[in-house]
Design a protein that fits this description.
Layout (H helix, E strand, L loop, with lengths): L3 E2 L9 E3 L23 H4 L5 H8 L4 E3 L2 H7 L7 E3 L1 H7 L4 E6 L10 H13 L4 E6 L3 H13 L2 E7 H6 L1 H9 L3 E5 L5 H9 L7 H14 L3 E3 L6 H21 L5 E5 L4 H7 L3 H5 L5 E7 L4 H4 L1 E6 L8 E6 L21 H8 L3 E6 L1 H15 L5 H15 L7 E6 L7 H8 L10 H8 L7
Parallel strand pairs: 5-15, 6-7, 6-9, 7-8, 10-11, 10-15, 11-14
Antiparallel strand pairs: 1-4, 2-3, 4-5, 12-13
Helix pairs in contact: 2-11, 3-5, 4-16, 5-6, 6-8, 11-12, 16-17
The chain binds pyridoxal-5'-phosphate.
């Protein structure tokens, strides 16, 4: 048996897969918060290039990957699919566990799959500068790298708590040539207003998104880039699942369970959706999306129209949400601290195709450490959630010979402060109090 299954460069997929036309009962359109009518493409064109807007609304199943994007992907793609035999042995399970290793990208996560594509389409349409938000810093480093490679300027609003906890992500972004500020920042109206009320504000992705959007709206030649949630991001990430499907075929295996961690939903969706057509044709596959107990968007939130940011500048998306002013606690899986979930993932949960589960952070770090000791790679705190999900599946019945596949979304080499905290016994589990969720859900926009 081969430990790892690798594809040759010329076996890299040449198109992305768009799952939207295959979703039973489809997606609800994004709404303009001013008129409560479906948002017009012209309005979105103020901050996004046409190339990405076309993808956002596309009903085509296959969308070709531009040659220039494929060439950059070629630096680290195709990524390996690895059988976690040492983990299987440590667990004493008859299950086979495979993981798709997205941590081999230059910045250590799946994020550049979309960052490179987004920078490419913006550049093609003459945009000179990109603004964005970042939580844990993974998306900010991916976009900074892509912008640097394609000759664009980049401004990153980084959630305050991560800015202080993860100084090396900041150094990476600066190395790639980006300008990084802690959010809330004094650089925007939204940021100044929040700082005036709460000078010590920890920040949240929803605030950083408002700042990046305001930046794009108030600077010529600047567009906005979002690292998850939107349909075009899920589309770009589908390369993960398309490769994995080919690799599983080469291994002569078929997954019974497909698992990923969910922040905004892009790595899990990109990994899982290429198997949705098989599922609809009757294959028995379970899709398990794992989220933190402290930010339980799918398991305790509501499926409703909500804004993607605090200042309600984004179109209203029909998604599972905890409310746009939900303040997640400062857990270490910063990339999973978002109040909403991709409309694509939300619709697949609604159709009972994706099963959402929530897990506590301590059991995730424990899972991550077992993984590091057995398979060698230290996982990002976000990725630990997927590993925990895979361990739960593999140990429910140790004698059941099932095939489990999970997405290894990123390594944790720049998150070692989180591991230090865990090992020192300083981390705790947080379950979100129901009243707090109810209070933020009470502020959802009213849609007739
Ligand atoms: C950003 C990030 C996530 C969460 O984002 P999704 O859009 O849900 O994929 C998960 N893992 C890593 C390593 C990340 O950087």
């Amino acid at each position: 048996m081969n430990k790892k299954i690798i594809l040759r460069d010329d076996e890299m997929p040449t198109s992305w897969y768009n799952v939207v036309p295959d979703i039973p009962n489809g997606l609800q359109p994004p709404l303009d918060p001013e008129t409560m009518q479906p948002v017009s493409p012209e309005k979105l064109a103020a901050v996004f290039p046409m190339g990405l807007l076309e993808q956002e609304m596309s009903a085509e199943r296959l969308i070709p990957i531009p040659e220039e994007v494929r060439e950059i992907y070629g630096i680290w793609r195709p990524t390996p699919l690895v059988r976690a035999t040492n983990l299987e042995k440590a667990l004493g399970t008859k299950a086979k566990i495979f993981f798709k290793n997205e941590s081999v990208s230059p910045v250590g996560s799946h994020k550049p799959n979309s960052a490179v594509a987004q920078a490419y389409y913006n550049k093609r349409e003459g945009v000179k500068r990109l603004s964005t938000e970042t939580g844990a810093g993974q998306w900010g480093s991916a976009l900074s790298m892509a912008a640097g490679m394609l000759g664009l300027e980049c401004k990153v609003y980084m959630v305050r708590v991560s800015f202080d906890q993860k100084p090396y992500r900041k150094s990476m972004m600066k190395t790639y040539g980006a300008d990084v500020v802690a959010s809330p920042s004094p650089d925007t109206n939204v940021g100044r207003a929040i700082l005036e009320k709460d000078p010590g504000c920890n920040g949240a992705l929803g605030i950083a998104i408002s700042e990046a959007l305001e930046d794009a709206a108030t600077h010529d030649n600047t567009n906005y880039a979002l690292g998850s949630v939107l349909n075009h991001v899920v589309l770009h990430q589908s390369i993960i699942g398309l490769e994995a499907k080919k690799q599983m075929e080469i291994a002569g295996e078929y997954p019974d369970v497909i698992i990923g961690c969910c922040g905004g939903g892009s790595n899990f969706a990109g990994f899982a959706v290429p198997y949705v057509p098989d599922y609809l044709e009757g294959k028995k596959i379970r899709f398990v999306g794992v989220e933190p107990e402290s930010c339980p968007t799918m398991t305790a939130g509501r499926l409703a129209y909500d804004s993607g940011d605090v200042a309600m500048m984004t179109p209203l998306l029909y998604m599972y949400t905890l409310g746009h002013d939900f303040m997640p606690p400062g857990i270490h899986a910063g990339g999973l601290r978002y109040h909403g979930m991709a409309p694509i993932v939300s619709a697949l949960v609604r159709e009972n195709i994706i099963e959402p589960v929530s897990v506590h952070q301590l059991e995730c770090f424990e899972a991550g450490i077992l993984f590091a000791k057995t398979e060698g790679i230290i996982p990002a705190p976000e990725t630990c959630h997927a590993i925990r999900g895979a361990i739960v599946e593999a140990t429910r019945d140790l004698n059941e010979p099932k095939t489990i596949m999970f997405n290894f979304s990123g390594h944790g080499l720049i998150d070692m402060a989180a591991y230090d905290n865990y090992l020192a016994g300083n981390l705790h589990n947080y379950a979100m109090p129901e009243e707090e969720i109810a209070a933020s859900l009470a502020n959802l926009p009213t849609v007739k």
